[in-house]
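Case 195 in the screening queue. Each case pairs one protein sequence with one candidate compound; here the compound is protoporphyrin IX containing FE. For every case the pipeline is the same: read the inputs, emit a complex structure as tokens, and attach any notable structural observations.

Predict complex for case 195.
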Amino acid sequence: MPTHSPWVDDPEGYGRVSRILHWGMALLLVWQLLSAVVRAVAEHSPLDAFFWSTHVGTGFTIAWLAILRGAWGLANLRRRPATEGPALLRKAAALGHIALYGLLILVPALGILRAFGKGRDLTIYGHQVFAPVTPGPNAALGSFAGEVHEFLGWTLFALIAGHIAMALWHGFVRRDGTFGSMTRGPAARHLAARV
Ligand code: HEM
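Case 195 output:
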């Protein structure tokens, strides 16, 4: 049986706060992927105008949710489920998760740095953070940040694809309860243990 409140993490599975943050961010990242793919393949189309209008706000939301989730993860570190699988894969999983959190914060920060350097408007949730200025304070820095933002943005989506593949491997090949600990929470490990 879970040893804590259903809201906090438990060695038997993730609590409600972690699961809400995880799946909420997953939805936002699917939306962000759509905005980036439509921009890459159909820039200036009406579909691009629709998705792009949400890119900055969604990206900013992803960044602060990642900070909140990282803080919640650290606060729950001692009672989180242990990583399952061979030692090398456990190490790869730890590094992969650090890279995911890092990119979830770094990619949006670079998008904002690009806007600042190039002197572009930055409006978040309808509030103007910087007005456009010509020339921008540092166009070279802005261009560099933009290039790195795009490269690391695609890298983040590739890492997420790897994360999903590994979660499915745990869920459907190893059947070790890892997948269920993020879907059904603590109850899932008890079900896995009974199989
Ligand atoms: C997790 C959050 C984010 C992800 C994953 C992400 C991802 C991406 C990707 C993959 C591209 C390249 C699209 C293409 O190839 O055409 C891109 C472009 C861009 N992103 Fe983001 N982004 C995020 C957040 C932000 C934020 C917060 C800003 C804030 C200013 C921003 C501003 C931009 C800009 C200005 C471009 C270039 C658009 C263009 O001129 O084509 N992004 N982003």
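Case 195 observations:
- The longest strand covers residues 127-130.
- The helical segments are 16-42, 46-75, 87-118, 139-174, 178-183, 187-194.
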